[in-house]
Design goal:
4% helix; 6-stranded mixed beta sheet; mainly beta; 114 residues; globular; Immunoglobulin-like
């Protein structure tokens, strides 16, 4: 399922939909804000990526839905957002993405901002 780097702070919760690879930010080290957020989407099983199913959430004490802020930077190929300001600390994010065949991929990962 994952052709990109595998990190200890990335968990695949579901993998029946498109492949989702986090290209940036670096999930192994600390980053400085602003950061580029880049994810690559690859359709699998002959089904197209269904962007209407894209959901990006920031998991804190409560869950913040960031989808509306990310959607302008999303295409069938992935997400490309540059110069994103994030506060210092550790941030857990969850990305969900489906395909036209009903498959769903969910990733949970952590980003450290210095």
């Amino acid at each position: 399922m994952l052709n990109g780097p595998v990190y200890s702070n990335l968990t695949v919760l579901s993998a029946t939909g498109p492949e989702v690879v986090i290209v940036s930010p670096d999930l192994q080290g600390e980053c400085r804000s602003p950061v580029s957020i880049v994810a690559r989407f690859t359709p699998l099983s002959g089904h197209e990526v269904d962007l209407s199913t894209l959901k990006v959430e920031w998991l804190k004490f409560i869950t913040f839905d960031l989808t509306s802020k990310v959607r302008p930077f999303a295409t069938q190929e992935g997400i490309m957002a540059e110069e994103v300001s994030l506060p210092r600390g550790r941030h857990k994010l969850r990305i969900s993405l489906g395909d036209t065949g009903g498959g769903l991929t969910q990733l949970l990962f952590e980003v450290k901002i210095a």
